[in-house]
Prior knowledge:
This protein has helices at residues 2-12, 24-32, 47-54, 66-79, 116-126, 152-156; strands at residues 37-41, 58-63, 84-87, 100-106, 127-138, 162-171, 177-185. It is of the alpha/beta class. The longest helix has 14 residues, at 66-79.
Amino acid sequence: MRKFYFNLLYLFTEPPWDTGVSPPELHDFIEKHAPGRTIDIGCGTGTNVIALARAGWQVTGVDFAPHAVKIAKRKVKKAGIQAEILERDAAQLNGISGPFDLALDIGCFHGMRDRKADYLSELERVLAPGGFWLMYGFFKSDPASNDPGLVEADLELIPASMTQVWRQDGLEREERPSAWFLYQKTK
């Protein structure tokens, strides 16, 4: 049902999270790290795929909404860059082996609800030792709700092989608490 809902959003509207602008946190990461292989988990229409590819990264973008994938493929072709765009579920990255030096996630993990453990297992599988996970998410206002969003307990699910490098708390569009996280896989 969620896949259907997201596909409809991309088909008939411009989702509020799809701003067409890569965030400064991603640009800062790109400036401080040599290009390598990256996966953009929940790539949407490919804005960050294009930014990474233009910075010299070998990029794979994945999203579970078919229409978002279709738009991303068009945008990549129009930009004249090389990137692989695939329709995949973030908790089942079938056919994707990595290893990736960077996994980018802007708003996917916080929407996984009861599938966060599966997502993290796939992330750990495809991320190279020494690789980074740059993740943005917003927090739930009511931790008991079934709405999308993070709760502090979600962060306890992150495997021991992942060390938090930094966390930057802030506020999302609607004044809801959010944070950027950078983790590094140590094993």
